[in-house]
Amino acid sequence: MQGLMMDTQLSVQLILERAKQFFPKKEIITRQANGTHRYTYGDFYKRVLQLASALKQLGIKPGDRVATFAWNNYRHLELYFAIPCIGAVLHTVNIRLAADQIVYIINHAEDQILFFDACFAPLVKHFAPELKTVKHFVAMDESPIEELRAESYEELLASQPTDFVLPKIEDENMAAGLCYTSGTTGHPKGVLYSHRSIFLHSMAICMADMMGLCEKDRAFPVVPMFHANAWGYPFASALVGATQVFPNHFMQPRDIIQLIDQEKVTVTAGVPTIWLGIMALLEHEKFNLENLRLIVIGGSAVPASMIEYFQKGYNIPVVQAWGMTETSPLGSIATVKSNLLSLSQQEQMSYRTKQGIPASCVQIRALDDDGKEVKWDGETRGELQVRGPWVAKSYFNTTERAEAFCDGWFSTGDVVTIDSEGYIAIVDRTKDLIKSGGEWISSVDLEIALLSHPKIQEAAVVAVPHEKWVERPLACVVPKPAFIESFGKEEVLEYLRGQFASWWIPNAVEFVKEIPKTSVGKFDKKRLRVMYQDFKWPGE
Ligand code: AMP
Which among 182, 223, 273, 322 is the best mutation to test ligand 1's pocket, defined by most ligand atoms within 8 Å of the CB? Predict the structure, then answer.
């Protein structure tokens, strides 16, 4: 039987039109150096049309890639919509990557225009001569930047009509977005998002058992717009007409928490390192967080102590989500199912610290080394594979890591267990596992325990070569400032001894000033491994 339902093509245009038609007075708020920029979805819509018209005039055709190099702000949001709404592809470039990687990514994507925040002009000047396909540079500012021959974004828009007619998106499977993974091996790899995947992913974010994003919300994604579309918040917020709050480059813990307080944010999302910084600040300063109804934390494992901190101290639920650039990113979420609510608080916490059950439409399985599906017993480990309408089918224009896509599944590289309730628990990234005398030690489990210690600010555990055991764990620990003098390595080890088998206990603890971070703010264990590859184990 055919043609039962209308074949409405799901698209970013549908999201844009809905925001303008039903929520024209809702606000988009951006912190700026000279105060706060506020305007409405109604104003935003007109500027998106102006920008769409300008893009056409600059020669952008359907399928062309257009790069952004920017913080979370309203102009970036305009690009988020205008580019896909004329059939082109929004390529969000990670501003924190090394210049050679940025050049590689932009050349590989064959970007036609580079829109950049004016504060990045010196950086752009540095790598611009190496860009092979970029025909226009646009400074997201009032003024042009002569030495880069960059036009001014505002001047570009000023002459454009506010009633530009957007072309019809005929096929929901057309590419709308492109994001490169911060890949730790080989070249960065691009993931193309379609109009359909963005639309369905946005709907998933708004489901009650996911993040339940709704019109009443004032959403503040701390996660950058260059990291997996700020986890989908800009699109999902527009779909439901939620107020959007953006920090621009004001990304220090105090800036973030002030914005949450001042703008009465209800939902926010970011990686654990952000919240570690905020927790340290909240020890000494008071802010009003009573409007916050949900903190979504993902990107790395979330310690129970973090969940408890916000729950007990502020009555704010923290929910952990797992995902990847390749999964748009929402893969799973650790909400507690109703049949588990009769369990003790401690037992419930054991579910909340897992990575959760898959988002609707996402299917999961875990395979052992022989490619056999492991039992869902919460104990047997396997590599997590996922599939679903917002999971990538391949990497963009490369055969690198093509083996990750097989039989309609994507191999995530995460080693997990899955329990009988369907909750995924990440044991480790395959490359972060520590192989000691033929047995595996989970660096994630040790880190989570360390981060729960009241004197520890940051912690990461990495494998270091060992003559007898092949590899042994080394714990790198940043003590909280108040305990720098009084905290000892033996105290760290003693704390772990109470929780883990003796052969899991790190052979050494290194106190460091800071754990290096990746371009998306996670602990950079690859760098740590290199730093400590020649480490001399004490007493050996
Ligand atoms: P990225 O594509 O840069 O966002 O990185 C994706 C990877 O981050 C995943 O494959 C996981 O290893 C890790 N990750 C994401 N969310 C979580 C989480 N909630 N807990 C543990 N690891 C996570």
Answer: 322
What pLDDT does residue 184 have? 58
CA atoms of 152 and 138, how far apart (whole Å): 6
Is the CB of 329 inside a 6 Å radius of any atom of ligand 1? yes
Report the domain count for the chain.
Answer: 2
Domain range spanning residue 454? 434-531
Q: Residue 429: CB within 6 Å of ligand 1?
A: yes
Is 91 contained in some domain?
yes
Active site residues: 181, 326, 435, 440
Per-residue pLDDT tens digits for 320-360: 999 999 999 999 999 999 999 999 999 999 999 999 999 99
Atom 14 in ligand 1: residue holding the nearest Cα: 299
Q: Which atom belonging to ligand 1 lies closest to the Cα atom of 518?
A: 3
* SS3 annotation, 309-365: HHHHHHCCCEEEEEECHHHCCEEEECCCCHHHCCCCHHHHHHHHCCCEEECCCCEEE
Residue 540 has pLDDT above 90, yes or no: no
Distance 323 CA to ligand 1 centre (A): 6
| CATH code of residue 461 | 3.30.300.30
- Does the beta carbon of 324 lie inside 6 Å of ligand 1? yes
Degrees to nearest 5, angle at CA 223 with 228 and 297: 100
Nearest Cα residue to atom 15 of ligand 1: 299
CA 187 to centroid of ligand 1, rounded, Å:
18
Q: Is residue 254 part of a domain?
A: no
Q: How many angstroms separate the Cα of 282 from the Cα of each of 44, 256, 286, 493?
A: 35, 12, 6, 27
Token pair listed for 191? 């993931």
Q: How far is CA 21 from CA 16, 24, 26, 204, in A?
A: 9, 6, 11, 22
The reported pTM is 0.93
Ligand 1 close to Cβ of residue 412 (< 6 A): yes
